[in-house]
């Protein structure tokens, strides 16, 4: 018997090898899960009460999805699982096994990558997995690895739609940690700061010119031109400021989107390919001119994301980081047009929040009515 206090759900195991989930508020059975062929040894709720993971004497570990009532994962182990436990964040599943005194940890891939959860039937082949080793990996043979690669390839073939309808707020397909780490990047850097400063090498063998930007890219063309100039003896000691361009690829994509009638699709896709720390560096390294051009272009890109209702959570995270970094500069320029763009963003945020809140309250009323009737 397991009780989830947040949702007031009680799950019980019965002698008929079934798992029944009871809503204690309505005193009704809302889900029944069948499939185990032998006595169930243990089961556990996930932290968000979305899944139930169960193990039995038949050697299988099954994952049940409560909202859909389907089995979304199953695997078999040689040594029977005797107990299960989820980590508070749902990142790991801990298992104990017969004839083993240790606790084995299984990583939850849905926390880091996009995994397609589909209904699995009992007549499908059940994959047998080896227990995690001390090195942190799995002791699997080449056949198991090829089967897993084939499964991932089949999942990659599934077609996904960017947006089902223009009126729907759509989130990105990026992992949750990608935008969450951006919001707490300062805390992460402080936590990972080394106790002792790294020691520099005595002599670097050589230096290569690099292109500006968050990604390290070598400017081989510049090195070649410099070599040619040395060979001909025509190298000039005079710096030509007219050819000096400090724009990174991030800034170039922003300017290109502004010139393309404020269509920032290419910029958004490029920004999504960057890591959280790279995005933070790019925002901090904006070149500042009297008109605040790049800052205005950046807010236009945020407006584009909000108006198209795509990548909504990324827009919120990127906007939050931008305001934290350049908030003082924006306040010190009260006559700049950037304030008009911020007001437009505020209006869209309020309108979308009101529309979404209305739909949520409408759905909650329907659910409450259905549960009480």
Structural classification: alpha+beta
What's the helical proportion of residues? 25-40%
Order of helices and strands: EEEEEEEEEEEEHHHHHHHHHH
Cα separation of the termini: 27 Å
The oligomerization state is: single chain
Strand order of the largest sheet: 5-6-7-8-12
Unreliable stretches, pLDDT < 50, 5 or more residues? 136-143
Sheet of most strands? 5 strands, mixed
Radius of gyration, in angstroms, nearest whole number = 28 Å
The total domain count is 2
Q: Total number of β-strand segments?
A: 12
Shape: globular
Strand content: 15-25%
Number of helical regions: 10
Report the mean per-residue pLDDT as an integer. Answer: 81
Overall description:
WD repeats lie at residues 33-74. Keywords: Repeat, WD repeat. One of its GO terms (cellular component) is small-subunit processome. Residues 162-371 form the WDR36/Utp21 C-terminal domain. Residues 131-155 are annotated as: Disordered. By secondary structure, this protein is of the alpha+beta class. The protein folds into two domains: 2-143, YVTN repeat-like/Quinoprotein amine dehydrogenase (Methylamine Dehydrogenase, Chain H, 7 Propeller), CATH 2.130.10.10; 180-190 and 208-230 and 245-359, no CATH class. The chain is 38% helix and 17% strand. It is built from ten helices and twelve strands. It has helices spanning 142-156, 176-183, 185-191, 220-232, 249-259, 265-272, 276-284, 293-308, 312-331, 338-372, and strands at 2-4, 9-13, 19-23, 28-33, 40-45, 51-56, 60-65, 70-77, 81-86, 92-97, 103-107, 128-129. A five-stranded mixed β-sheet has the order 5-6-7-8-12, with no helix packed on it. Strands 1-2-3-4 form a four-stranded antiparallel β-sheet, with no helix packed on it. Strands 9-10-11 form a three-stranded antiparallel β-sheet, with no helix packed on it. A hairpin with a 5-residue loop joins strand 2 (9-13) and strand 3 (19-23). The longest helix is centred in the last third of the chain and has 35 residues, at 338-372. It is globular.
């Amino acid at each position: 018997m397991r009780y989830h206090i947040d949702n007031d759900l009680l799950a019980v195991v019965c002698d008929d090898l079934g798992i029944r989930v009871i809503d204690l508020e309505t005193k009704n059975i809302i889900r029944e899960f069948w499939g185990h062929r032998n006595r169930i040894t243990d089961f556990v709720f996930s932290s968000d009460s979305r899944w139930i993971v169960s193990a039995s004497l038949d050697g299988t570990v099954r994952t049940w999805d409560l909202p859909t009532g389907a089995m979304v994962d199953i695997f078999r182990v040689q040594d029977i699982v005797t107990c299960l436990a989820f980590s508070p964040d749902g990142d790991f599943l801990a298992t104990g096994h017969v004839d083993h005194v240790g606790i084995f940890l299984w990583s939850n891939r849905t926390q880091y990558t996009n995994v397609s959860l589909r209904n699995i039937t009992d007549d499908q082949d059940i994959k047998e997995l080896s227990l995690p080793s001390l090195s942190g990996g799995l002791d699997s043979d080449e056949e198991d690895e090829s089967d897993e690669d084939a499964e991932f390839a089949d999942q990659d073939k599934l077609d996904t739609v960017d947006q089902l309808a223009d009126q729907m707020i759509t989130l990105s397909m990026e992992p949750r940690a990608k935008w969450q780490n951006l919001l707490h990047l300062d805390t992460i850097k402080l936590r990972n700061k080394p106790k002792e400063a790294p020691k520099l090498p005595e002599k670097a063998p050589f230096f290569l010119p690099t292109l500006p930007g968050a990604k390290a890219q070598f400017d081989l063309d510049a090195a070649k031109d410099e070599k040619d100039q040395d060979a001909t003896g025509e190298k000039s000691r005079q710096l030509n400021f007219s050819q000096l361009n400090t724009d990174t690829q991030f800034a170039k994509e922003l300017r290109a989107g502004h010139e393309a009638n404020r269509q920032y699709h290419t910029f958004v896709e490029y920004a999504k390919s960057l890591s959280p720390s790279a995005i933070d560096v790019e925002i901090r390294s904006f070149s500042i001119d009297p008109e605040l051009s790049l800052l205005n272009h950046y807010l236009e890109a945020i407006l584009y994301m909000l108006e198209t209702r795509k990548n909504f959570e990324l827009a919120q995270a990127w906007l939050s980081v931008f305001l934290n970094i350049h908030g003082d500069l924006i306040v010190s320029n009260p006559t700049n047009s950037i304030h008009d763009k911020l007001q437009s963003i505020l209006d869209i945020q309020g309108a979308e929040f009101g529309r979404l809140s209305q739909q949520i309250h409408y759905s909650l009323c329907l659910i409450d009515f259905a549960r009480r009737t």
